[in-house]
Amino acid sequence: KITMLTAYDATFAAVADAAGVECILVGDSLGMVCQGLSSTVGVTLDTMCYHTESVARGIRRVQGTAWIVGDMPFGSYQESKEQALRSATALMQAGAHMVKLEGGGWTTDTVRFLVERGIPVCAHLGLTPQTVHALGGYRVQGRGDSATQLRQEALALQDAGAAMLVLEMVPEPLSTALTQELPSCHTIGIGAGNGTAGQVLVMHDMLGVNLGKNPKFVHNFMEGQASVQAAMSAYVAAVKNGTFPDNAKHAWV
Ligand code: KIV
After folding, report:
1. Phi/psi of residue 235, each to 5°?
2. Which residue, of 61, 78, 88, 250, has the fewest CB within 10 Å?
């Protein structure tokens, strides 16, 4: 199982790395948790580069090994493949090892274009927060008939060369089935049950520090722990041994 957590600054990134977190996602969720925005839509590429540089510096300082995934923010890849390449280049030069972009069919050509040019890509399907307004809110995706479309998009993204795929708020049977069907693209679940190849959480959520209500699928790993590093290590252990997430609590059927 692959462990991924978000981090947005040098110190927390270094602590996560020391706790054994394998992938640090510099998520555009920083718009909500760091900037106080109501969604990720207002996050800019400059802001993403600033935080990616900070995370990369923190990991370098402790000679860490975490794989850094930089989120492509809203408006930085929708226009054209060339625009996406410019934005991805900026994130890679800021210290990312891989970029993540949200969306289905329409992103496939962009993913292929980036991968062919040596940029590892993580795709993101299901609840895609940048398009939350079009989706009608933060709700489960891929139920009923829309499961077929999500499956086709996932297969197309694998075919285009995406090496990872975040599946957010997708029913557990669908994310488990996709994990079997995507041998060369590692599925990373968030609110998608525990059949995926890895898990990701927003760091503030799993530490029990946030301004709103925690999503139902989040567990507060700070409970009973004496330090942030211990909480992150508990998260790593729970993902590795399969106790997080608990399908009984998180099955979206
Ligand atoms: O921005 C982010 O933190 C994300 C995760 C919720 C997967 O995209």
Report:
1. -65, -45
2. 61
